[in-house]
Design goal:
This protein has about 270 residues and is of the alpha+beta class. About 25% of the residues lie in helices and about 20% in strands. About 5% of the residues have low confidence. The structure holds zinc ion. Zinc ion binds next to loops.
Length: about 270
Amino acid sequence: MPELPEVETVREALEPAIASQTIAYVRLTRGDLRWPLPEDLDKRLVGRRCSAPKRRGKYILIDLSQKETLLIHLGMSGAIRLYDHKPNFQKHDHFSVEFTSGQWMVFSDPRRFGHLDLFASAATPKHPLLFCLGVEPLSDAFTVPVLTSLMKGRKTLIKSALLDQRLVAGLGNIYVNEALFRAGISPRRKAGSIPGKRALRLTNAIKAVLREAIKAGGTSLRDHIQPGGEIGYFAQNLRVYGQAGQPCVDCGQEIKQIIQSGRSSFYCPSCQR
Ligand SMILES: [Zn+2]
């Protein structure tokens, strides 16, 4: 599932390709993906000029002319491809945009867990998918005191708290596992037990893991393809995620795998306390 770094990688790739472009035609193959799509979405988009795409959590937001915003959510398996000519459409290319320049943006979503929405730009902060999102971990607003206060008094596991999008936006299972390893914090620890040095290490680890992943072009564990057809390679740099039974890169002890709240956790019992 695309996490924050994958979505940010897509956003960065889209920016030079679609900013200032005007939509000439929209090819929409269905009226729904995960949820019903806005009525007449294809017709409403024609003639609109795109601004530089933004990101909030795992959502891509494109402000359009006439003061409306297009939201794109990649879901579980969504991918965006860019073309400088009309593409040969594939089975799962559900939403394709032709720009007046002759370039195309194609959103494919085989499992249809993605979403598209179009709404007044002024209503963005109140959008049902956006208003409850927590702090952006790469923003200046994500600091040690902020993380400490978010976790204070929480009896849930630190792992579960970090996955809660209402607290920190955009973190998923892969990068939470990696950040906890780098911070030397056990995924079995309670969220409320990390003030002080642990909170400092965790704040820094979350930012570092996300920045490295964005730089590497996003992880591609499944079928997530980057614009331009490149596939991210950060998966090779994962230190604990998916490494059960392998030696810890720091101490050599075996990486353990446990299930917490239905999700796999990977950790080094020696390095993570
Ligand atoms: Zn270790």
